[in-house]
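re the bet — no i am not wrong, look at it urself. input seq straight from the record:
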Amino acid sequence: MSADNPTFQRLEDQIGWYDRKSGINQRWFKGLTIAELVGAALIPLAAGAGVPAVYVGSLGVALILMKGLQSLNQYQQNWITYRSTCEALKHEKYLWLARAGPYADAARPEGTLAERVESLVSTEHAKWIAGRQQAREELERLARPDAAAPSDRPD
């Protein structure tokens, strides 16, 4: 298949997209996690050093906002899912180039590749939508004034 073939272009485009998005989500996840750890470690230090309460409290508010941002945007889940999809797409690319696996005896290997690539992308998209719904439900639960963790509720 040549580089100007639509199926190959789609495959290369999707590999690039998932690779970039995986990296972006990894950086956001790790950056926010490190900031949360540093901020959490600074709170008792600042309180013990006599830093005014307004600053210590502001640090706590910043930590809550960072955690909310992580929950809302699902950086860790997206990083892992995007990386997994990228690697699966690369796997299909190399099998197709070697005419191995499902492409070895396929009557129409290009059609088989197109179907498998679109299946991977579609599956990832469905997982993304499910993750967004789950995050939205969690945020709505946390926003309710009577929200208590399930383990905190009496049976």
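see?? The CA atoms of residues 149 and 155 lie 12 Å apart. told u. also The chain is about 80% helix and 0% strand. so pay up
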